[in-house]
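Before the break, one more example. Copy the sequence into your notebook; we will annotate it together after we see the structure.
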Amino acid sequence: MLRGGSYWNEADHCRSAIRNRNDPAIRFDINDNDNDNDNDNNGFRPVLAAPLPNSRSSPMRSSGIEPEQTDLRRPRPGPDPDPPAAAHACVAPGGSPSAARLADPEHIDAAIDVTCRGKHARPDVAWFLFDRARHAARLCAGLADGTWRPARFDLLYLRDPKPRVIARAPVADRVVHTALAMLMEPVLLRSAAPGDLACRRGGGQHRALLRLLRAMRQFRFALHLDVRAYFPSIDIDVLRTLLVRRFRDRPFLAVLDRVLESGRGLYDSPRARRHARLGAAWPPRGQGLPMGAVTSQLLAAHLYLQQLDHLAMRSWRVGGYTRYVDDLFLFGDRRCDLRRWRADIGEWLAAERHLRLKHLTARILSCRGHLDALGWRIRRDGLEPLPVMLRRLHARVDGFARGERSLAALERSLRASLGQGFLF
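Here is what the structure looks like once it is written out:
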């Protein structure tokens, strides 16, 4: 064998090697053709913890799905590798985020491409692109000398079918949001837990459903926890403290702080609280991230609750732990464990993040039944779309009939949504 440990042909043959009773100092030389006392049993070989994707013994090779952690009873926490920059158009090349990189003309130009992708027909985007060079130069100059200031958000009151208050920024501000996200995303994902699957390459709704289905088949009981009014309840001061720990460049943090302050108190108006069905006492006024901004999506999904992910998987050893933004899914074989984890999570959210669970006594479900999650009903034998998902599909078809969607866009949308039901 090769010095340092290896295997000759395929990873399937990787195993611990025997030394017999030979002298450990004897090494095997693959270029030695004399018949001396060299012995190929000396040394060691690495042991694979799981089959490789291209291995003949991999059970998922034929399905085209990359294998994940197959045993969810004892999670193996640890950060996922950074996504390749060439494969993800919204990820900037390596390097520490800084204001100089943020104001780089090439970086701003790439952010414009990502922001305006698929939206060229919208009037505000078309007008921005009509004078693209001037707008890009103005953004670069403002970010470089520290004079850039975000404009106010416009609020959209939607029902999907849940009532939501969506914040819409001008196109120029959206470009800055995207430029910030492109620099922050590789840093935040570097320490993301395997159970954090929202808004990231290699994750997403398909991967979350796959993980939940596997956990339903493996464990006896399931528990679904939801954070009450998550985006309006995020404490800006706590979030700022978390950002200072990750990023050191003060001008970069100053730009990010302006974005956070521009959305502070966005849900304080009586109309916004009434539409979003927010209580008079909760969430507290003067807090919150604007739902709809790219930076808010990234920070809420991967930074604010990241410590909880590692705490649940490393310290509490929660089996099958999965989080999709503010939806937490826990699995176990004993109801008492789930009750204890439910109490621990509620206490940690209140003490460390100033958040509350929507249901303090959320029901513990049997995995022999079903779990409603992410618009789908999950059973051990497969998936079934919920009525809310069917309504969304009908709305997309109606949009095509009214001329709001092209046929190619409708096909991509339906294929992505319906593909979840045909994964298994």
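The chain has 15 helices and nine strands. Confidence is low (pLDDT under 50) at residues 1-13, 15-45, 47-71, 73-94. Try to locate both features in your own notes.
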